[in-house]
């Protein structure tokens, strides 16, 4: 069933920014504390999966070999077999046509196994790294789900709700909704803090099937009765680990309390810490779980990692060499090499941007204190390659969708190994190769053991100094063998096999 007979076809995106939404305590002391009456709910359909004959014919041995090859790990009762092609997913023609039009050749591992799980209407935990194709893993089943529900009536809220930690990720999801929901005229909108409420309220009151929201701003909208969650039967928690890192757990709990308990819930995360396990246990019922790769902290293997042990005073001169080398390579190849540089503080971001511009590099800075107009301009300049070097704080580490980032430079190391993996995940996306170069100083000594584990898992060179730091700081090195360090044109560098 498609919604081609609808007389409207539009997608809405408001513009503005707040990485945390508008999530003050006042919102949580609102009417959201009163739980709706779920005693007399209309039934709804959520199982749409039809196993393709080709899938059904495959033996268990063949399926296990495929999962092993694709590094797919599953748990749950009655897990469906993965699909090898888009046609095998048994999507309706209006969904399949959009997928084929996009030029994809085959499903990614998370899509291959996740689509049958989601289409069966079961709750789902998906653990996969950034750039794995998880957005379409939940979005295409969501479109099928929407088209099987009654049309929205005046005053109805959305059918699908996707919660995301940042404005950047929310906008990225909404763009995919607009693209793949076009053929069935599904409307979507983005709700996040830091932007004018007027356009967002207008979208909500007009009626949209999909709402993508940061938790704080959504609570504002619910509290002011600009929308409601009575029709939500498909809930997505995207980048759940990051939402918890940002302190959104109270907001998430308040929002979920307003949604019918027999909904379908899909939780997605790059990591699987105890905090995420706890909310999964609270919000999901008898879920399937699919993990791509290991649940241990690990980096994308398409990224060549170079960790350079260096003195603080030597970081800037060394950065000039690293960036200069990359810009020279780009010029020789007549190509644009986008480079994302991370600084730990807003002041550090501004200082580094100013110094690089003074030294002739086409660099711009991005952090939360800049105006929305300036943020949008910086991102546009970076994306179109006019200024291919962007210095950013961690606010851009997750949810920032910029294609073809050639290199990530950690001018300042982050405070946690998880953030290191998230940062360098901006490169090496969608099967492309990338380089991550990181400056590691004495101040980062406590991270040494974890960084060694990440490097070893990805078979990357490990500078000998990291082992010394790990021993001094009490890092756990059990079972870790020291890998011979590579060479570069600076001292103390763990060289990369490919650049």
Q: What does this 3D model show about the protein?
A:
It is an enzyme of class 3 (hydrolase). Residues 84-112 form the DEAD-box RNA helicase Q domain. InterPro entries: DEAD/DEAH_box_helicase_dom, Helicase_ATP-bd, Helicase_C-like, P-loop_NTPase, RNA-helicase_DEAD-box_CS, RNA_helicase_DEAD_Q_motif. Its EC number is 3.6.4.13. This is RNA helicase. The chain has 499 residues and is an alpha/beta fold. It folds into two domains: 44-292, 3-Layer(aba) Sandwich (Rossmann fold); 303-473, Rossmann fold. It has 18 helices and 14 strands. The strands form two sheets. Strands 1-8-2-7-6-3-5-4 form an eight-stranded mixed β-sheet, sandwiched between helices. A six-stranded parallel β-sheet has the order 9-14-13-10-12-11, sandwiched between helices. The radius of gyration is 23 Å and the shape is globular. The chain starts with 24 loop residues before the first helix and ends in a 26-residue tail after the last helix. Mean pLDDT is 86; it is low at 4-27 and 475-499.
């Amino acid at each position: 069933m498609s919604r081609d007979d609808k007389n409207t076809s539009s997608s809405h995106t408001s513009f503005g920014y707040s990485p945390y939404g508008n999530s003050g305590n006042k919102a949580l002391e609102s009417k959201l504390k009163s739980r709706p009456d779920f005693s007399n709910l209309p039934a709804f359909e959520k199982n749409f999966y039809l196993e393709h004959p080709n899938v059904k014919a495959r033996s268990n041995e063949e399926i296990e070999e495929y999962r092993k090859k694709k590094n797919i790990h599953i748990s749950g009762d009655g897990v469906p077999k993965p699909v090898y092609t888009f046609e095998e997913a048994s999507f309706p023609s209006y969904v399949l046509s959009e997928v084929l039009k996009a030029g994809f050749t085959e499903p990614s591992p998370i899509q291959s196994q996740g689509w049958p799980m989601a289409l069966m209407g079961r709750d789902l935990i998906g653990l996969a790294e950034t750039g794995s194709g998880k957005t379409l893993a939940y979005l295409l089943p969501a479109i099928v789900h929407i088209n099987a529900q009654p049309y929205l009536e005046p005053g109805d809220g959305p059918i699908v709700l996707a919660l995301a930690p940042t404005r950047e990720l929310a906008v990225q999801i909404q763009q995919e909704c607009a693209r793949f929901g076009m053929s069935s005229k599904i409307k979507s909108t983005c709700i996040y803090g830091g932007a004018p409420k007027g356009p967002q309220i207008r979208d909500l009151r007009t009626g949209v099937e999909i709402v993508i929201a940061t938790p704080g701003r959504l609570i504002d909208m619910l509290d002011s009765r600009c929308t409601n969650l009575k029709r939500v039967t498909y809930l997505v928690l995207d980048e759940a680990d990051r939402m918890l890192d940002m302190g959104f757990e109270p907001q998430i709990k308040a929002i979920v309390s307003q949604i019918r308990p027999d909904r379908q819930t899909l939780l997605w995360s790059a990591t699987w810490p105890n905090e995420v396990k706890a909310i999964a246990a609270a919000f999901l019922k008898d879920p399937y779980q699919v993990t791509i790769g290991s649940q241990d902290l690990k980096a994308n293997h398409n990224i060549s990692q170079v960790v350079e042990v260096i003195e603080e005073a030597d970081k800037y001169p060394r950065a000039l060499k690293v960036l200069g080398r990359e810009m020279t390579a780009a010029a020789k190849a007549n190509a644009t090499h986008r480079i994302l540089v991370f600084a730990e503080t807003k002041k550090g971001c501004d200082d580094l941007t100013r110094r690089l511009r003074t030294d002739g590099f086409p660099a711009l800075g991005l952090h939360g204190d800049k105006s929305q107009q300036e943020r949008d301009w910086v991102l546009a300049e970076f994306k179109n390659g006019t200024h291919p070097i962007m210095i950013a704080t961690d606010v851009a580490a997750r949810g920032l969708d910029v294609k073809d980032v050639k290199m990530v430079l950690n001018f300042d190391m982050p405070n946690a190994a998880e953030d290191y993996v998230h940062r360098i995940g901006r490169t090496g996306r969608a099967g492309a190769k990338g380089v991550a170069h990181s400056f590691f100083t004495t101040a980062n000594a406590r991270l040494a053991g974890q960084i060694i584990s990440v490097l070893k898992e990805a078979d990357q060179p490990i500078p000998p100094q990291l082992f010394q730091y790990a021993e001094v700081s009490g890092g756990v090195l059990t079972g870790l063998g020291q890998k011979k360090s590579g060479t570069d044109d600076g001292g103390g560098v763990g060289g990369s096999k490919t650049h």
